[in-house]
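Lab notebook, bench 4. The sequencing result for the construct came back, and we need a structural model before the next group meeting so we can plan mutations. Quick request posted to the team channel:

Model the 3D structure of this chain.
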Amino acid sequence: MLLEVAFNIIHVPVWLDTDFTYVNQTKEVRYSLDNLIVFFMLTRFYLVLRLTTKYTRWRNLDAQYKCSQEGIEADTIFALKCLMKTNPYTVLFIAFMSTSVLFGFAVRVVERPFYEDDVTGRIYPDDDGYQDWTFLNNGWWCIVVTMTTVGFGDLFAVTYLGKLISIIACFSGSFLVSLMVVTLDSSSKF
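Done. Here's the predicted structure in token form:
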């Protein structure tokens, strides 16, 4: 419960307008503290998962009664397992889309300041490795390519935080792809 309270306390105060810089690959990168707090606020997405599993038919009174007869607790994990058994493709599609959008937003937040001009804050293209992180769909595309382990190389993370997010996205994408393979295998059996 304390961990959940800590996740929900994280917010961006109105008065907070602090920037800090660090050196990444011989370039000074300026991050806004409120953007990084928004990055950590993305962990609140677990509330959608809890809300979804709370109001399924696998958590109602009848399911709790039948589970208690078998010595099983009708909790969130039980509801997720039942949803994966009854609607596996829908659950996997929603899981893949939501994780790719969340990771795409996160990688955009941490990669965009690397390409901003220090004085004006505008993004100017240059010839050596410029990537356009001004649009959310570019971050999403980068993460979809990473999660499916295709790796086109047109967009990739350069900063340390962006690389960390990409690694986590790669592992979660491998997990989701393996769940898809298991689902296809179980649905093709008679």
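The radius of gyration is 21 Å.
Will bring this to the meeting.
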